[in-house]
Structure of exodeoxyribonuclease III:
Amino acid sequence: MNRIPSLALKVDFLKRLDYDILCLQEMRLKTHVDVCELNKMWNTAHSIISIGEDSSDGVGIFFKKDAVNIIKRRDIIPGRLLLVDCCYYGQRLRIINVYNAPERTKKIQLLKKLKYLLEIGFNIILCGDFNIVTEATDRISKVEFRELRESKLLVKVCKEAALRDLYRHLHPHTVHYTRFDSLTKTRIDRFYISHNLFILPCIYFITNFITNLIHVHLNKLSSVGLRVRGNLLFQNTMLRCTS
């Protein structure tokens, strides 16, 4: 996305993707005027954007079809933690988009707020850039893995809310990463889903042009289905909602 020179071209690119819901992080919109401009460009359906004080932050949830009723939105931490409750094809769903800060104190602050957002009675999709590694198989590094306080808290919060780490559920022992530099490779971009979403086999495909972008595709089947592809994970998965 960063290689695309203009906002208009980026919006056009996103519109061509075959996904119904897109969750973006690190949007780098500086002012609310920029937000309004993007909302006008995204004329296919709802677009919900949150920006904060840091010029590098910004999260957004974009819908490509009108078959969604937005119940409420909450900017829990502007530019970092965005919540949308919606009704999609008759199913109530909470979507939470995260772009966690690199500082430990801010990570802990976000996770403590997140805990209370998960105490609901309907299905949840929690996704984004968490800037957290929770186990040794989330990284490739010469430095020995240490489970940090924020790692333990993320695991605890998701376990208490009965959320599954989607990639780890599909690949229990695979070492994989979504971000890398010259020394370390880490899996910090994640999907967590409610336990009562059942995973079905689905053909997967690979592409390599996206960074800092997570897609969610919901297909209307006999019940509601969700096809999820994680940022640089390249794994399509079909989920079925039973509630």
Notes: DSSP finds five helices and 16 strands in the chain.
